[in-house]
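We emphasize that the prediction below concerns an isolated chain of 1318 residues; any contacts that depend on oligomerization or on bound cofactors are therefore not represented. The input was used exactly as deposited, without trimming of termini.
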Amino acid sequence: MARTDLTVRLEASFLLGCKAEDMSTRTRFLNLFSEHIPKQIGPRLAYLLGGQSWDILHDFNWAFIVLDMIFGAINGYAPLMDSKPALATLSIPELRVSDVLQSVRHLLYFDTQAMHGTFVALFPEIWGGLSRKEQGDITASMIHILTKEFHADLPQINIFQTLLASVHRCNPPMALPPHVVKWLAKSYQCWYEGLEFLQVAVEIGREDDAAIREANQDALAEVYAELCEDDYYYGLWRRRCLYEETNAALSYEQNGFYHFAQPLYEAAQLKARQSIYPMSEAEYYVWEDHWMLCSEKLMQWDILQDVASGEGNADLALECGWRTLQTWNQENATVTTYLNSVQTPLTPRRVLFKAYHHLYSMACTLREQQQTAAQLVSQGLQPPPPVRLAVDSQSEFTKFVDEANQLTLRKWDALPEGLTMAHVPLLAQFQQVVELREAAVLMGNLAATTRENLNEKAQEAKAIFQHWRDRLPLTEDDIGLWNDLVSWRQHVFHAVNKFYLPLSPEGPSQPATATHIHRGHHESAWIINRFAHVARKHGLLQVCQKFLDDIYRLPNIEISEAFLKLREQARCNYEKQNEWYGGLEVINNTNLMYFSGAQKSEFFAIKGMFLHRLNRHEDANQALGQAVQLDHTVPKSWALWGIYSDDMHHLNPMDFMLAANAVSCYLQAASLYRSSKSRPYLNRTLWLLSMDDQEETVGRAFQEYKGEHVYWYWITFIPQLLMSLSQKEGKYAHFLLLGIAKGYPQAVFFPLRAQREEFLLLKKGHMTGVSESVKTESLQPATNSATSTAPQGGGTDGSVPLIQPPHMMDTNAFSTLGGQKQPWDMADELVTLLKTGHPLLALSMEQLAEQIRERLKPNQEEEVYRMTCQLLTDAIGLCSTPSKEVHTVGAAALYHAQKLLHNVPPGPIRDQFEAQINNKPTTMLEYIQSHKDASSPFVDIKRISTKLERCRSPLLAFRRITFIGHDASVHTFTVQTYPQRGPRRDERLAQLTRIYNEVLQHKREARKRNLEFHVLQTVSLNPFIRLIKIDNSYISLMDIYDDHCSRNGFGREEPTLLFQEKLRVFYNARTDDGKGRDTDILKSEYLQVRLDAKNEVEAKYIPRTVLADYMKRIMTDSTSLWLMRKQFTRQIAALNFLTFCMFLNVPPKRVLVSRETGLVGLIDTSFNLRVDSPTPDHTPFRLTPNLQEFITPIGIEGLMTSTMLALSRGLLEPEPLVEKQLWLFIRDDFMMWYKSQGKNPLADMRLGFRKQLAETISAYLKRMSQLSGSAERARAGSAEGVGSLPSVTVVTGIQQAINLATNPQHQAKMPDQTYPWF
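Result of the prediction step, given as a token string:
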């Protein structure tokens, strides 16, 4: 359309017609628009994005019009393929493209989200088909339209989000200036679209263009910083920095070791000033900024004050002055100068400073006027009219507060819609605004306070302070937020002291009046103690001690605060080995006369632990005993005495009196805690009972305990209690299970039901063995003693081990323990109790289990599929060993094939299968090619959903059943069946990871990153069936692998067959030359062939972008993709941590990923007990190319390393609390392993069994320690001076493991069944 004067004037009105609500009017305008612009898609897009002005549609996402114009370029008369199943059912004889597009055009107008998704999916496809010249024109047009500023309010899904998201998915990538993308991200809610674009630009950036690379990195770092994505920010800078000191300092700072990072920044600046190495300007700024940041975290405000004075930095000087009470008053000209010198733009924090300074000045002035009026009255003169504190809506103070509130709201509105870490500082700003308004009320109260109304006014002030005590940040929040809060409140408390202290009565006063006079001091002591506690939790021990010393400067504090101060100081000393004597001296020098009995008890308990650490065990035992005597209701004292006795028993395994004392203390502590803190002590109690001697010393201590048993917290250990029924501690486990069954029958029903069936099989085997023994005695009396003692020697009698499940204990050895009941008899008693005490409940749960077993068991086709998959897996495993001989199907495989044949329904497939089995030996390759695949709170069950899902995975076919709760919640479970009894070792691993999660809940670094191990909930209905809480959002890595194979038209086995074929060709070539495989074939040459074969598989079949492309395809937008990647990275890091530390074998088919939450879970996986054997995957953990590509190098460097470090530190520091929790769970697996070796663990309980158990746990803890950076921190702590500080990162151990896991040569060593190329 020619651009005449008339068309230019009518352009705005014409565009408004294109978004008219009336469908017919809108269609006419859009059709007219489409007719007068170029028909070809390239010029059409260039005109729409570059030549057309969209200013009039600032409040409308005009991508809808562009998308409509794209549809207008499509040939609407082209027929649709009638082979589509959804379209073949329509009655229209010939369906054309226009018939569908017309409806889509109207629907997209009403659904902005669908329009956005359609545009984002369609634009990259168009971009890939354009010529280079057309791509250049569209790029220029895109830059032009993206750099235009819109001042009006934008819709929720605005045009910039749509365009930037579509540009991000273009291939080849569209080049946009990084500063433009950064500006769009910060200005138009395009945060995650910008992040995705900049991350790709940084990863694929040209190495020869340093300026563009630096610009991309700077823009990405600034967006990370704005969103407070600290781990990604540090990961980016650690990859781009030039100095090793910078890398080390950033790693220390990222993980909270500011006292190590600060001197490294100083060392880097000194080296740069000496011009030893080249540096970049951006890196020098990082040194300066982060040195100041470390100084702020370490509360070195005096040093920062000097820096601010030297540089004339008014903002920094204002912050430093805010921390000093003496410099912040209405008479200080320096503070007034700093406030007035602050330039625009104003920030909420600066405005709040002004508001408080103005409020405090008004209150002081008012107080002076009141004192002057009182003097005039005493002289008989007329006082001036009373003056009130001006805090109404028109006052200057209120204007300051409102302005700060509005500035904070604008910042909040500019951030992403979902909550991020960047919202946390703004929440603190809102809290300060609220408390500033409350402070205005408090100032008015103080100004009106006199000696006569002191008690009344003080009560009003106390109510405000009580609210402040309840309104605190989270423990894991940044230490800077805590320090801001403490500084702000101390200013208020200082004002309270200034008003209250002059009102002190001259004569004797009431205790309440004296308390009110020192209200400011008491509140200061309380907030300082809270802050010191948080600083210790953050690992800032110097900051903790510094603030605790400030309490001594207060003239009056409460007894409770003095106790908290001394306890916190002792705990601080307890965490540093070189201060143990100092901590003990603090306790010894404390006058305990003024403390209560409970406080004295806790002091003596802490003293006992100091003495225990100093190896003064007798004194420690005496102090702990005295602590219990002072107050027997303090659980901490009982717990510490139990830990001491437990530790001493570990050093002296034959002294069972120590173990008995530990059990008594643990039971007492658990009954007093009555919380989750009880579980670790119950765990140790059961372990010590299982290690009892023949005289039952520990058991008698359990029987003599007359306190209350906390059965609710024993529920966690129901599987262990059921297993213990067949051990020497069986009668104690039976007692506890009876208590659980009486109070919580639902918790014990299904585990008992599954275990009872195993006990019945064990009973049958036991009775068979007894009857055969009787027959043997009658036939061969001379050999009576030999045959009767054989079962007790570790199961040498062949009849019992064949029937006995591998994870059950030796009942013959058990039956000799003093006439104790048999385990099946105790299980029957429990079942009888459930049926008599809760008949309706037991009947309902029994019917539910039976209905699931009967109705949801695998049918014939599903069983055939499972067996086929198993045979196929076995066949591929046999082919993985290169050999020139033809691989033939072995006897075991033929047996299973014959078993499979009986399940195949009659027909041609069965006839062909039978002929192949019976006529000739089948080679393994032929077999594979002929059987390839064609590509919280409790809830009552209200009802079972009528929807039953039939599913298929790479392993088997299964069903899903859905329960509807009484609160309308939906709970989906997968029914998993076993062809034989499963050992359920993965359930013990799940229990162990739950214990890890409980420990991590109290660790700052883990809570800060929201770290936890994802545990799939399971319910065992019997030894063959269990329910696993897996809904349809979960997908295994092998499902993603299969999806890629089916989309590209090849079978799942073809990459594996190609890999094996390459190895077979190499082996045949070497053997034809007369060189034996074991003697002449070099190992390095063989490994190189494996590497070449792996690379060929990746190039031909499985590229490194399979996982990333799948996630991009299923995620609805860039925000979902970013959140999925971040959560997936954390979960993979947690999984790798478990894999490395617990020696797990994790094939991709057992890794499940939730597409809704990003959580990663394991199924049918257990820890390895043979820690001395090499790992089967030849790598520390799984980090294959596809995982690397989706996580990104920045995510590996920043998020993964910090996650693994936080997990290891959380489980080991300040003490390895999980060590004592491991014994019980690993004991059960060792029992199974001992039985499989034909050994009797009961006869070897205190010798080899316990020794091997200790070696296994030590190996687990050693690997955790390797990932915790303890060695690096120890070397840094022992360094003297800045120059001697080692410039190694705190995550060196983690980086070494990642380097091994990502090394292609090591990945090539992995078995091909683990798919190292995926």
